[in-house]
Amino acid sequence: MKIGNREVDLEYWFTLLTFNMTTRLVASDRCVRDEDAGTELGKRFVEGLKEKFLRSSPSNLCDYVPILRWIDYGRVKKSMVILQKKRDEFLQGLIDQKARTEIDNQVGHRCLLDDSNLSKLPFLQCVINETLRLSSPVPLLLPHYSSEDCIVGGFEVPRGTTLLVNALGLHRDPKVWEEPDKFKPERFEGGREGFKFVPFGIGRRACPGANMGVRAISLALGLLIQCFELEQVREKKSLIIDSKPPLKAEALEVVCIPRKNALELLSQFQN
């Protein structure tokens, strides 16, 4: 298509429109701003998104001849695993941006985030809830006793039976949660999920320190997001936890980069 003497790449502009609409829904911001849309920088960014979300070959022979999956014909499985990792990294960046934008709009950089701001940061709470869902503080809740004979899930439970709630299993149950193994904070935007979400128990015997703990986590995480850009350390270190049997875990190490908007605020706390 030509407008006057200028050619217009409609494929690029429609692709850009689609990605911008998607990221505005997810993170309330465009992936490419107007001033960069027609530049080489904007075009490279869109090409990078196409590589992450659009396969070069939409058809897969393994779908028609399933036995080929055994040998990963065409290395489709391997390439999809790599592609999914890139998508996860991009989507994690959108989540980070959404939380950062919320704090910037509601708190700003003239003062540090405090208790009075937490009620204005619903998405930050969604992030914390989703983290607690995927990584429950304890896998099993404290023991309870059945006060009378009852039937649960087709099983007869006599009175006086010791009952343990598998919180970790409940939080990752595909019958209860959509895509349970994915980090999706937006699933909590409608509020808490009742008996589906019980990281600290529920009812009269819930953890008495739950509110204090969540408040402390909210303040710590909110302050980090407000003041720093966080990047993962390239070489991950492993830790051996002294237990029986010994457990292996990855060390939680990040690089903290002061945000430009927060430099003046942070300078007030230098010795």
Automatic annotation (TrEMBL):
Keyword Oxidoreductase: yes
Residues binding heme: C207
Stored PROSITE patterns: CYTOCHROME_P450
SUPFAM superfamilies: Cytochrome P450
Keywords: Heme, Iron, Metal-binding, Monooxygenase, Oxidoreductase
Gene Ontology MF annotations: heme binding; iron ion binding; monooxygenase activity; oxidoreductase activity, acting on paired donors, with incorporation or reduction of molecular oxygen
The name this protein goes by in its record: Cytochrome P450
Organism: Camellia sinensis var. sinensis (China tea)
